[in-house]
Every structure is written in structure tokens, then in C-alpha cells.
Structure prediction request, 325 residues.
Amino acid sequence: MPDTRSLTLVVAAFNEEAALPALHARLVAVMAALDADCSVLYVDDGSRDRTWDVLLDLAAHDSRVGLLRLARNFGKELALTAGLDHVHADAALVLDADGQDPPELIPAFVAKWREGYDVVYGTRTRRDGETWFKRFTAAGFYRVMQWLSPTDIPRDTGDFRLMSRRVLDALRQLRERQRFMKGLFTWVGFRQVSLPYDRAPRLAGSSKFNYWRLWNLAIEGITSFSTVPLRLATYVGVFAAILAFGWGLWIIARTVLWGDPVQGWPSLMTVVLFLGGVQLVALGIIGEYLGRLYVESKQRPLYLLSDLRPAQAAPAPVVQGHPAH
Ligand code: UDP
Ligand code: MG
Prediction:
């Protein structure tokens, strides 16, 4: 049986000065009731407000608080990667800084973990405070992902999840730059279980994800976990070629049977423009993948830290392979 004593809560925060004190108070209450060695690791993702000062203040008053500060805003996926790289406990639990993932559920996650599950992921049953448009697009995204990718990413699952030591070690081996965390969490496998919960509205501040960022995240998810779009271009090409061949036969037959009066300029233009468009789309799809290959080939570090303050009361660090600094 692996150890299930110590637990680190990982919170990525970008401009969350208003929400953090309230969240921390709730975490403290939960940790007090929990039968485990708890610590909290806050990752400041290059905030431009007073988030870092607020975090320093929290750490000064609570020896279980560890802090990481990224050199700039790297985005939530990389902030989480940085946080998870620096967890030395038996498990890590990720939650949002804005209170949308209720800390009061942590004991339920821990209970499942102690039953022997390696990944316990929260599944949203309700999405309060979100527009129908966001719900609709989210549902569409999960459907497309399911269709395109062999990795079955669970629906309505955010980053609210607990991961055991061996899952953390597995995640550390995935150093790809284009990180779609939901996909990576699923990809590693092990014993996973879902925990349904009601997603609460934000405590304070505003969402950092507008539709453009969500759209980009969706493209990230698709290109990181599926090469079906590349194959789609082939199918469209084959389909167009078959159609063109059939039409060619018809034109030859017609010319032989009824002669060849000059006509067909509009249909010619339509075909040329349509195929031009299809070719550009196919090139664009190839470009998406090529661009990712290019970024990957540069082998840059995933993130850069500008400050690292481990929790004072945290369990002794286990010497690990190679978390990127
Ligand atoms: N976040 C981050 N870096 C970013 C954007 C967001 O660390 O560049 C954090 C943010 O502080 C919050 C979590 O990611 O803790 C979720 O962000 P948000 O609440 O804005 O997203 P939503 O819940 O609206 O999807
Ligand atoms: Mg939120």
C-alpha cells in the first residue's frame, strides 16, 4: 500500500488578490478537520496586482504555506505544472483560487484516494454563474474531443482533482510544451474515479478566460491529443478527386455524344475557388501541427521561477528526478 499521509493543495493564482484571503480561510478550516499532513502551495502566475504581497502575508502567518512565483504570466496550465513539480507529499490536490472548486469537498477526495484511487477528479453537475453560451460551447468541445481523440477526456471535468504520488511522478515525465492538462491527466491512466460536485460562482474578481482564450485552449486540446484533422485533409482530397473523376467522365461522354459548344465558365470558377479554399484549409491544418513541432523543437524550459519559498512545516522533500526550474 502506498503512503496516504501527506497532501499538498496546489492553487494557481493570477490577479486574485481579492479572492485569496477568503479562500485561504476556508482551506485552513478544512485542513484543521482533515486527518492528514496538509500543506498549501500557491503559485503566483505573474500577477499584476497585489497577489504576491497577499501570498507573502499568508505565508508569514501560516508555516504550512509554500509559495512559487513565476517570472511572468505563463498561463494556468504551466502554473499548475510548476506547482505539481514542486509537490513532495504523497498526493497533490489542485483547486482554483477563486473558490469555484469548494474546499469543503477535499475530505471526500481524500476518502476516495485512501480507498485506493490514484486520480480523483471533480465532475461539475451544475455550472452556476455561467451563460448558456459557455455551457453550449463547452458541451460541443467535449463532444468533438471524444470523436477526434483516442484519449477519452471525461466531460465537464476541470482541474479540481487529486493525484497520487505515482501519477505526479508520471506527469513529471511529460515535458511537452503544448500542455493540455485535462488530456495529460487522463493520458497517464492508473485508477481514476469521478466525484460529482456543484461548481460555485466566483468569490471575487473576474474570469481570466474569455472566449478567445477558450477557443485557443480548444485548439490546443485537439492538436495535442489528435492527428485526425491531418487525416481529414486526406479524406477531403480523396472525396474531391473521386467527384472530379466522375464529372470528367460525364464531360467526355457529353462531348462525344453532343459535340463541344464552349460553356461552363461559372462552373469552372466555382470549382477552382472551392478547391483553392480546401487547399488553404488543409495547409492551415498542417501549419498548426508544424508550428507546434517548431515550438517543441526549441526545447525551452516550460516555465521560469522568480521566487521559491517552500512551506516551513512541509514534509521533508523526497529527492526526485528532474523537475525543470
Ligand atoms: N489562472 C492562472 N493563470 C492564468 C489564468 C488563470 O493561474 O493565466 C488561474 C486563476 O487565478 C484561477 C484559475 O486559474 O485560480 C481559473 O481561472 P478563472 O477562474 O479565471 O477561469 P474560469 O473559472 O472562469 O474558467
Ligand atoms: Mg473561476
